[in-house]
Amino acid sequence: MHLQKVELDLAEAVNLLKSLASFFLEIRKDFDGYKRKGMELCGLTSYKIKRKQIRKLKTDEIRDNEEIYFNERDKFRIQTFYAIIDKLTAEMDRRCQAYIGTLEQFDVLFHLKDVNVTELKEKGLTISKAFCHDIKNDIIEELVHLQCHLKSLNLGSNRVAIPENPRTY
Q: What are the backbone dihedrals phi and psi of residue 152, each rounded to the nearest 5 degrees, phi first?
């Protein structure tokens, strides 16, 4: 599965989650197709039919809150199928928003060679404020230094390449 790859880029993960959420919405539109496939897998041919039991009213009673009654197909579609699909879609959206927030904070690290120094300093300050207990303010100078170093390497790619076996000195 692509979302579980170690090499997965955060931006690609966001795109995969968005496509998964839209896929769930497409599934939601095709209830009859999935119902047919499910019934074939289970060997069922129809729903169990239940009659709605209605209590007789006494002469002095009035029926105020008449409930809406669904047949078994509609009940399953609304209370089970749609509920599951809607929950999956909402969860994908929630996770996607969390990844987008993280991506917005750290996106500058993936495009160090492309951003100007002012933007790099602003993003570095944002990162150091968000993680003030973990990162010191000198991260800004370190990012500028890293940017200059990457430009001097002239790697050709805009993305930062992390070597598999980094040299230690």
A: -70, -25
34 contacts 21 by C-beta, under 8 angstroms: no
The predicted-structure confidence for 73-103, as pLDDT tens digits, reads as follows 888 899 999 999 999 999 999 999 999 988 8
Domain ranges of the chain: 8-50+69-106, 111-160
Structure tokens at 153: 């390497």
Q: What is the pLDDT of residues 56-74, one digit of tens each?
A: 777 777 666 666 667 788 8
Using the 8-state DSSP alphabet, how is residue 120 labeled?
A: H
How many angstroms separate the Cα of 157 from the Cα of each of 110, 120, 127, 150, 151?
Answer: 11, 18, 24, 10, 10
Tokens of 2: 């692509």
Q: What span, in angstroms and rounded, lies between the C-alpha atoms of 86 and 67?
A: 24
Decide if 30 contacts 98 (C-beta within 8 A).
Answer: no
